[in-house]
């Protein structure tokens, strides 16, 4: 794929990863955010080998809308996960 791609997602308040992830102030765990990035890549036929240089810059709460931006770079994909204009996470996904 040689074009940029985007996906949207929202993590439901009853997601099984949320209990205990800060009772009273639930936050979406980073692993759930990366799982959504992985799913977006796999939907495009990418076989994921792993992630590199991932940085989490802002929080995402259950029920908030998020957008994934994907940009192919050889065997890597740059990604950003945004909540409105705020970058929640950014990094590279490595393809096999």
Automatic annotation (TrEMBL):
Q: Where is the composition biased (Basic and acidic residues)?
A: 1-13
Q: Where is this region: Disordered?
A: 1-22
* UniProt lineage: Bacteria, Pseudomonadati, Pseudomonadota, Gammaproteobacteria, Lysobacterales
Gene3D superfamilies assigned: Hotdog Thioesterase (3.10.129.10)
Q: Which organism is it from?
A: Tahibacter soli
Tell me which SUPFAM superfamilies the record gives: Thioesterase/thiol ester dehydrase-isomerase (SSF54637)
The GO molecular function terms of this record are:
lyase activity
Q: Which Pfam families match?
A: ApeI-like (PF22818)
* Ranges for domain ApeI dehydratase-like: 5-90
Q: What is this protein called?
A: Hydroxymyristoyl-ACP dehydratase
Q: Give the source's domain of life in one word.
A: Bacteria
């Amino acid at each position: 794929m040689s074009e940029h791609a985007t996906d949207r997602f929202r993590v439901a308040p009853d997601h099984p990863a949320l209990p205990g992830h800060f009772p009273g102030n639930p936050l979406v765990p980073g692993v759930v955010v990366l799982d959504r990035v992985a799913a977006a890549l796999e939907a495009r036929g990418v076989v994921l080998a792993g992630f590199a240089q991932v940085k989490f810059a802002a929080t995402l709460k259950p029920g908030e809308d998020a957008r994934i931006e994907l940009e192919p770079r050889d065997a890597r994909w740059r990604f950003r996960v945004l909540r409105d204009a705020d970058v929640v996470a950014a990094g590279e996904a490595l393809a096999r």
